[in-house]
Amino acid sequence: MKRRAHSLVEFALVLPVFFLLMFGILDFGRLFFTKVTLENAVRQAGRFAVTGNHLTDPSTGSLMTRVDSIIEVARRAAAGLNITDIEISSVEGGSTGPGRAGGPGDTITIQLTTDLHLITPMIGRYFGSGGVYTFTVSTVFRNERFPVSQTN
Known about the structure:
Layout: H1 2-49, H2 66-77, E1 83-90, E2 107-117, H3 121-124, E3 132-142
Antiparallel strand pairs: 1-2, 2-3
Helix pairs in contact: 1-2
């Protein structure tokens, strides 16, 4: 009987450490997944943006604006993430309005931001406030020489 109680005490001491380790591994895996997915999304959006192309809105069949097309490409590439902020700006087009994606030969900057809520409180304490880690990723591309009519 003494042996059984000893094993039960050891199990009770090891179990919290085991769960902390397991959930910590899950949190770090989610951190790396989010980082890589966000980097891929901003890269895909940038590669689409430099072409001057527009997507077709599936609900109406009409062409989307260039800025809306870039945002849609970023959201599709970041599947599974809740993108909280997308900023598109260019040297000539500024950071507001429909021309912010720039014209031919202009330099465009795309920035994506998302928040990740960590599930392990002890680890979450070291990554942001309230167990929320904020990722911000940006890229800079130079637009190709596309027709000026495709600017908006």
